[in-house]
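REVIEWER CHECKLIST
Item 1: Sequence provided? yes
Item 2: Single chain? yes
Item 3: Sequence as submitted:
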Amino acid sequence: KGLSKTLCMAEKAWGQLSERHGTPLAILRLSGIYGPGRNAFVNLNRGTARRVIKENQIFNRIHVDDIAGSLRFLAGTDTGGIFNITDNEPSPPQDVVTYAAELMGVTPPPEVAFEDADLTPMARSFYGENKRVSNRRIRDLGYEFAYPDYRTAFSAMWRDDRWR
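Item 4: Structure as written out by the authors:
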């Protein structure tokens, strides 16, 4: 809750600054970030990947290229407001690991029930959230995601050897 409060205070401060200067403010709320060096391929390669199973658990995620793309896109508009920067497909985290393992041609790690998983408090806290976040607002403005879902991104990262 501490981070959420800090983020809300920061958004409010930016809003006040925007009002004082009469400038539109776009607040970008990013979902789980992945890209080269930070993804399931890296974790599988290091032997640290896990498939923790919590019923109906989904995560939202976004590739770093789409963070940059959405920033460029919004900078070219006079549109303000809050934008969820996330791909089109919230999905279970274990599915991402399984897909990456398939692309690599390796066996995915075994499934572990959330209740039995040895997780740090930080990792456990991630599983406390379970919500679908919509990116409709930025898509309605015309932004087209380079990686609309993790499968598109992971296939490209693996094909182009841009996962390390």
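Item 5: Key structural point noted by reviewer: Residues 94 and 127 are 12 Å apart (CA to CA).
Item 6: Recommendation: ____
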